[in-house]
Design brief:
alpha/beta
Length: about 230
């Protein structure tokens, strides 16, 4: 199997923001991601553009923007987006509208589809390399990650940009939802070539099933934590 290297990790979550010291505390189990609806400000985008964006879309834009700002990655690099829940709050609002008013607003529907966060990101950041969207089978993050890195393993792509994001679950779903309610996003470069400070993914058959556990494992290596 060809080696896989992960580098240039960027993260965002409510209260932790994009602050390395906060994420180091999180990786050390000294703080948690709070269940808040807070979103990044995206001051580098037009106010009218960002006004109607959801938490998941704003977080996706933020981590992707940060990755490109801090590296020399080609802006035509392909993107792969993973999410367990997608635009869950907008989807709930649409379902409410169908039940209560027997109607769907076209504008609301267009911003509720599963690929909205990454599609909006390509528009915001003027990225033209194309993207793929993966929903994890049985809510198992490892299944989606394996699919995401397959082009690099197969040598059809030298590198891809991996992006994961999930927003806060609406209260109405919490009683029937078993997974963690952690609103956060991260982006990273996945490459077949080793780079400075890159992390080697040794065993693709032993990947964490939850995205937070996977990110925590990477950050522990990045920050040299035990």
């Amino acid at each position: 199997m060809n080696p896989i290297f992960i580098s240039n990790i960027s993260c965002w979550a409510p209260s932790l923001y994009d602050d390395d010291s906060n994420w180091e505390l999180w990786a050390s189990e000294k703080t948690e991601i709070p269940c808040l609806k807070e979103s990044p400000k995206l001051e580098f985008t037009d106010p009218l553009f960002r006004r109607r964006l959801s938490q998941i879309s704003k977080m996706t834009i933020q981590v992707t923007h940060e990755l490109f700002e801090n590296t020399y990655i080609n802006r035509d690099t392909k993107l792969v987006f993973i999410s367990l829940r997608g635009e869950i709050e907008r989807e709930f609002s649409i379902n409410e509208g169908i039940i209560e008013d027997n109607a769907i607003l076209p504008a609301s529907f267009s911003l509720s589809v599963f690929n909205t966060p990454i599609a909006i990101t390509t528009l915001a950041l003027k990225l033209k390399g194309g993207y793929s969207v993966i929903y994890p089978s049985k809510n198992d993050f490892s299944h989606a990650l394996k699919a995401a890195i397959a082009p690099v393993l197969a040598e059809t792509e030298k590198q891809i940009i991996l992006i994961y994001a999930d927003e806060l679950i609406p209260d109405v779903y919490k009683e029937n939802h078993s997974s963690k309610n952690e609103p956060f996003a991260f982006a990273a470069l996945i490459s077949s070539k080793e780079a400075v400070n890159s992390i080697k993914l040794d065993d693709i058959n032993n990947i964490c099933t939850e995205p937070s556990a996977f990110l925590k494992k990477l950050l522990k290596i990045k920050y040299n934590l035990k």
